[in-house]
Amino acid sequence: GAVVSQHPSWVICKSGTSVKIECRSLDFQATTMFWYRQFPKQSLMLMATSNEGSKATYEQGVEKDKFLINHASLTLSTLTVTSAHPEDSSFYICSVTPGQGLPSSGYTFGSGTRLTVV
Amino acid sequence: AQSVAQPEDQVNVAEGNPLTVKCTYSVSGNPYLFWYVQYPNRGLQFLLKYITGDNLVKGSYGFEAEFNKSQTSFHLKKPSALVSDSALYFCAVTGNTGGFKTIFGAGTRLFVKA
């Protein structure tokens, strides 16, 4: 089955710095990638949808200048949290699909990144 | 707009007993429904899906779910729970409009006691 690698698994950074999270599809070409964040004991909130080679589509209320998404290749998407603040502390998860339509086996999720901003 | 409701924050069940985790949905057109499981500090793992066909869907680890169109429900079930089933379960719906975005329910934490 599809394998997605997300790195790092956890990161602690100082307030005001930027953090980059990578999401790689290891055995298929990921045309579309989704980025979610999850607060403790809450559901996943879709942040943005990125398609390879084009600009990401952000959900309402998500600051595109703060959460920079780059999907430069069919196997890699990155989420950069710029000028991080403690309220950005969260669990970030990517999911991928090989096409732009509905994947037949659901979406494949990365293992997530726990970001703590101190 | 799409929405998913999981009315129970937590479900407690004894090992060996059947379990049900409830989910109802709202979506325009035909729904694509999924169940995922999440273990602590991990990503989501796909359990099963309904897209079309038989209303009873069988998935991983002995789980199954029944699609009920009239009640707009997609409850997750397992005939005999295991302690290792204890985790956070998410119901999700993907609509066939708007780029196939997936909306997740709030999640239901399942505790299986030995």
Q: Your description of this structure?
A:
The complex is a heterodimer of chains A (118) and B (114). Chain A is globular and about 40 Å long. Chain A has no helices and 11 strands. Chain A has 118 residues and is an all-beta fold. The model of chain A has no long low-confidence stretch (mean pLDDT 88). Chain B is an all-beta fold and 114 residues long. Chain B is 0% helix and 52% strand. In chain B, the strands form 3 sheets. In chain B, strands 2, 5, 6, 10, 11 and 12 form a 6-stranded mixed β-sheet that branches. A 4-stranded antiparallel β-sheet of chain B has the order 3-9-8-7, with no helix packed on it. Chain B has a two-stranded antiparallel ribbon with strand order 1-4. The mean pLDDT of chain B is 90. The chains are: A mainly beta (118), B mainly beta (114).
Strand residue content of chain B: over 45%
- Which sheet architecture does the biggest sheet of chain A show? 7 strands, mixed
Order of helices and strands of chain B: EEEEEEEEEEEE
| DSSP summary: helix tally of chain A | 0
N- and C-termini, Cα separation of chain A: 37 Å
User: What's the tally of helices of chain B?
Assistant: 0
Spell out the key features of this protein.
heterodimer; A: 118 residues; mainly beta; seven-stranded mixed β-sheet; four-stranded antiparallel β-sheet; B: 114 residues; six-stranded mixed β-sheet; 12 strands; 0% helix; globular
Quick rundown:
Chain A is 0% helix and 51% strand. By secondary structure, chain A is mainly beta. Chain B is globular.
How are the SSEs placed, and which strands pair?
The complex is a heterodimer of chains A (118) and B (114).
Chain A: E1 4-7, E2 10-13, E3 19-25, E4 32-38, E5 44-51, E6 57-58, E7 67-73, E8 76-81, E9 90-97, E10 108-109, E11 113-117
Parallel strand pairs in A: 2-11
Antiparallel strand pairs in A: 1-3, 3-8, 4-5, 4-9, 5-6, 7-8, 9-10, 9-11
Chain B: E1 3-5, E2 10-14, E3 19-21, E4 24-26, E5 32-38, E6 44-50, E7 56-58, E8 64-68, E9 73-78, E10 87-94, E11 102-104, E12 108-113
Parallel strand pairs in B: 2-12
Antiparallel strand pairs in B: 1-4, 3-9, 5-6, 5-10, 7-8, 8-9, 10-11, 10-12
